[in-house]
Amino acid sequence: MKVRKAVIPVAGLGTRFLPATKAIPKEMLTIVDRPTIQYIVEEVVASGIDQIIFITSEGKSAIENHFDYNFHLDSVLREKKKIALGEELNNISNLIDIVSVRQKKPLGLGHAIWTARHVIGNEPFMVLLGDDLVISKTPCAKQLLNLFDDVGESIVAIQRVPSDETFQYGIVEGEENGRENTYKVTRMVEKPAPGTTDSDMAIIGRYILKPEIFDILDKTTPGHGGEIQLTDALLALTKKRAMYALEFDGTRYDAGDKMGYLKAILAYGLSHAEIGDSFKKYIKEIATTL
Q1: What is the pLDDT of residues 91-139, one digit of tens each?
Q2: pLDDT one-digit tens code per residue, 262-289
Q3: Domain ranges of the chain
Q4: Cβ contacts of residue 62 below 8 Å, gap of 6+?
Q5: CATH class of the 5-287 domain in this structure
Q6: Fewest CB atoms within 10 Å of the CB: 98, 138, 182, 200?
Q7: Between the CA of residue 95 and those of 45, 72, 124, 264, what are the distances in Å?
């Protein structure tokens, strides 16, 4: 069955970016000339997905508004003869079909995904976290979809991390299965204590999940941090059917972290068609003064 829908949880409070996120959703923080969430949506569109389900909470209307048509703004831009900019904004509102579902209580990522069950129905779906950015030749989401076409089972995207950082991630243990950069998952653990795993394969914010995950999430009790952890549900799913981990090709930036956010600005700025060359020149100039 084709993966047609993508869930993007955007209900988090963004406390790591306070006070900036007191009134602005963290997903709307700008990287060069567009909000973080737009890069995620554009990756989904480039990968061939038909529909996005935003999992929202109070104070997140700015995200929905960004992808909606603004008649007043469009009229002003036309009056000022800013036709190209107007067309760009209209293209944003026509990128993809978007549905919003409210997560009424902050009960964790697993619970956020569970709230989309009625919209997803009985079909596989993709999950993308709203602050994980990936720069790659082939969109990261598309890489997962290509593998899904081959194996037809749930998939998590992974990257290698230093052993002293594994406690910050969900960690996968797995066996090579003959496919390049692909592993059959044997064990998963959320933010493991030092010495409890030898694996350095960390889950990042890209998943393809079979619909059975909803029944499992419905029965999953709160775990690490008192929240319903997706990793716990994924581990339960591996006991029922196969699951794969894909070490994707690309560079990931954690835009939900201050340092990761600054690195993302640097990376996207250097590759920007309009300012990339002049930005690179400026960095070289200031580097000599540091």
Answers
A1: 666 778 889 999 988 888 999 999 999 999 999 999 999 889 999 999 9
A2: 999 999 999 999 999 999 999 998 888 8
A3: 5-287
A4: 24, 25, 28
A5: alpha beta
A6: 138
A7: 7, 20, 22, 23
